[in-house]
Batch of 2 targets.
Target 1
Amino acid sequence: MSQADPTVAIVTASYKGDFERCRLLCESIDRHVTGFTRHYLLVEEADRELFRVLQGEKRKVVGERELLPSWLRAVPDPTNLKRRLWIHPFGLPLRGWHAQQLRRIAFGLQMPEDAMLSSDSDVVFLRSFDVRSLIEDGRTRYQRVEDGLDEIIPELLDDHLSWSRAAGRLLGIASPAETRTAYISPLVPWRGASVKAMGRRIEAATGRSALRALVATRALSECTIYGRFVDEVEGQPDVHAVTPEPLIDVYWAGEAMGRAEVETFIERLAPGRVGIGVQSFTATDPDLIRAAAGFA
């Protein structure tokens, strides 16, 4: 990695249901974010034409056929034709949220940049942000919160622990089976060389290609896999700048926010944070976010 001039890509895995949120993300990047090589939108082939209108000089739409193996393919969900399943010969079908994670990992395994900033579709940048600040003196920012799972909503804790156990198995970590360290955020930086080393570790631990091993589990959290790899396998503090502070304020769960609630959430943006993330499954109207954020 060039310490003088690091390269950073922004990467978003999205789908048609999040299109308007993704459009707002793109507009906020264009207004507030600098220092990135390109913003890549990773989508299913069926959504490629829809997202093509967001493409530009520094934004590229990438269909998943460029990233994922031919044996993993999307088909209509027979129980709900509005949804998709990803089928493969190595286990149970996967959902869209699995496929989005696989696209991000697959991109990371082949990206030419020094680092990538993984951004969910429901992120909105509200302050000026140079992504090159994520790398300082050769160290890439890395978010981890010790015992952070103790702050998780109780009904979600079992899922997080399951993701941690699956990450341990994929990485060949015999002990501990799980960790209560939290790594998940809608906006996280990954060091390119570490993602590639993570892929090699998965292959060595499982005896399979990284993607072949990943599709075999439905307990999938790419942030947790990367986090446990950096903490427990790679162990190179000289290339990671560990911080518990997130880049954005996040509305993780709850009822859909109304206009006043969205405005208050934005007004209370913590110092040092560069934007917000309002989880799409809260069903908060993206038009309300757009107006409150000044993009109407």
Target 2
Amino acid sequence: MKKKYSRLMAATLLALVLASARADAKPTLQVRAFDNKVDGNAEVPARAVTEMMTTELYDANIFSLVERENLDYLLEEQYMGDSGLMDQSTAPAIGKIKGARYTMTGAITVFYYNVSGGGIYIPNIAGGVAGAKTAYVTLNLRVIDTATSEIVYSASAQGEAKREAKGILT
């Protein structure tokens, strides 16, 4: 699954760099929370994908990323600084939050998680156990120019991750 998302990230990076209006500066990007479009409870994977995308984009060092998912915390700190409770030489100023040229959003449209396996034990002889966990996911991604609302990039990727465990009981 990671390999397919790496290709998706590489294509996204290239598209944003090419779409950037200013060649002399890194394009500014915000990553919005990815949505769960799956029946059932896939909220945890949606939040995880948002975090993964943010980390991958930061590590790529191609964008100037701005935080939006934790904006309440940032505003709280700014308002506290404006209240006079903080040392004014270190207090963040209200009205200095940087704007984003692009916003990335997406959705998990398919998510399936399966756990299988079992074991057998014959007393005084031996036994064995085997199990597997498999996750399937389809992710849709959009990058939008915040000034024009134009979708500058769109992609879909599917992936699978499988973890197996086997052992002998004695």
